[in-house]
């Protein structure tokens, strides 16, 4: 186990990230369609390819009342090379980066541009939930992880270790009114639209998000939380590895 408090690697020699995303759920005054039009007409997204998502065809009143789709995006904007995606709805926006991951030094400014534009184009914006999520595909040849048994994770039934066909989910409180749910799964339990490499042995999904009752009207609060969540995401991810594996894979 990588002990908490140990200096974490900046990154692995071979990145495992297949998708990273930030989601904001919010409320705002005005007509949602007008808000969406103003938002997606900003750089750099105004020339991205637009696609309608399934919830687009549902009446706005129906979407607003149904808790299952209140926060469903209705439009998807796809950037050059299809590796960058912006999904937008009347109460939600999410920014996605698919592999190859560009690194936090580039991803963070992109997220700050997102929050700047959201606050600039919204009327009386109130952010109700934040979520920063990293999905990782571990592979035997790149990460020395051939199965769950190679991680610092122990599951057993009557002392028989469970190392195959696994879908484990657990949630911890990480402070600052924030939770983290970690999902560790073998490929047969993963449905990620073809972004998972065929030789993936273990899928690790780390989702850091604000607890129920969160609310802010300030962009600074959002940006500071994103920085905090990124640090916590790294802690929870590397906590799954044994120290010798980290030492072997650490990029110097």
Number of helices: 6
Assign the structural class, choosing from mainly alpha, mainly beta, alpha/beta, alpha+beta, or little secondary structure.
alpha+beta
Query: How many beta strands in the DSSP annotation?
Result: 11
Write down the domain tally: 1
- Shape descriptor: globular
Task: Write the SSE topology.
Blueprint: E1 17-27, H1 32-40, E2 49-52, H2 60-65, E3 75-78, E4 84-88, E5 92-98, H3 104-121, E6 126-138, H4 140-143, E7 156-157, E8 160-161, E9 167-175, E10 178-185, E11 202-210, H5 219-238, H6 243-249
Task: Provide an overview of this structure.
There is one protein chain. With 252 residues, the chain is of the alpha+beta class. It contains six helices and eleven strands. The protein has helices spanning 32-40, 60-65, 104-121, 140-143, 219-238, 243-249; strands spanning 17-27, 49-52, 75-78, 84-88, 92-98, 126-138, 156-157, 160-161, 167-175, 178-185, 202-210. Strands 2-3-4-5-1-6-11-10-9 form a nine-stranded antiparallel beta sheet. A two-stranded antiparallel ribbon has the order 7-8. Strand 7 (156-157) and strand 8 form a beta hairpin. Helix 3 (104-121) runs antiparallel to helix 5 (219-238).
